[in-house]
Design brief:
With about 190 residues, the chain is α/β, with parallel strands linked by helices. It has a single domain, classed as Collagenase (Catalytic Domain) (3-Layer(aba) Sandwich). The chain has helices at about 15-30, 55-65, 120-135, 155-160, 170-185, and strands at about 5-10, 35-40, 45-50, 55, 75-80, 80-85, 85-90, 90-95, 100-105. The strands form two sheets. Strands 2-1-5-9-8 form a five-stranded mixed beta sheet, sandwiched between helices. Strand 1 (about 5-10), helix 1 (about 15-30) and strand 2 form a beta-alpha-beta unit. The radius of gyration is 16 Å and the shape is globular. The model is unreliable at about 180-185 (pLDDT under 50).
Length: about 190
């Protein structure tokens, strides 16, 4: 069977409207339909008490293990504070040229930075992280253009300056890579 969709795996509760908007973003940028899957993760084994955070590498591997085999790509959505050993925190992570990525809302919340809650801004940031991480799974690397969704983001302010879409160069690269994927059958 040909792989023809991207899977969103919800590792927690996300409002239907939020998932709908994210699905529309993914379809717009990657030209694949999206299916949504709810999964009950036990993240306790990934919790690092000294850091009070969750190991993104372990979670990413678990998402890979439970991803539907007929899905071209999968992205796990979470609400926990993620880290990798070399960084204090991350917004998301993906296997470059792989099948799986993860994204978390946790560090995207204004309240974490002493600012007033802003749900529309929170969702906008989350959408950008998801598109960015899926871009990596399709082989895109960080982009030098400030407004491109593939620009590296260390801080939420970096996310706020980006659009939730690819620049012309990244879109062309994605189309080129997708074209070669389609020619070799997935």
């Amino acid at each position: 069977m040909e792989k023809e969709y991207i899977t969103i795996i919800s590792g927690g509760h996300f409002e239907k409207n939020v998932l709908r908007v994210i699905s529309e973003d993914i379809t717009r940028e990657f030209h694949y339909p999206v299916i949504q899957q709810l999964y009950s993760f036990d993240l306790s084994c990934y919790y690092h008490p000294g850091r009070r955070q969750y190991d993104a590498n372990g979670i990413l591997k678990e998402v890979l293990e439970i991803s539907p085999p007929d899905s071209i790509k999968s992205i796990g959505l979470f609400r926990v504070d993620l880290f990798i050993p070399i960084l204090t925190y991350i917004f998301g992570q993906a296997f470059l040229n792989g099948n799986t990525g993860i994204a978390s809302l946790f560090r995207l919340k204004n309240e974490l930075y002493g600012l007033e809650q802003n749900n529309p801004l929170l969702i906008d940031r989350f959408r950008k992280v998801i598109i960015h991480e899926l871009g990596h799974t399709f082989g895109l690397i960080h982009c030098p253009y400030p407004n491109c969704v593939m620009r590296s983001s260390t801080y939420v302010e970096d996310l706020d300056q980006k659009k939730n879409c690819f620049c012309k160069n990244c879109q062309e690269e994605l189309n080129r890579m997708r074209g070669s994927e389609l020619m070799i059958g997935g």
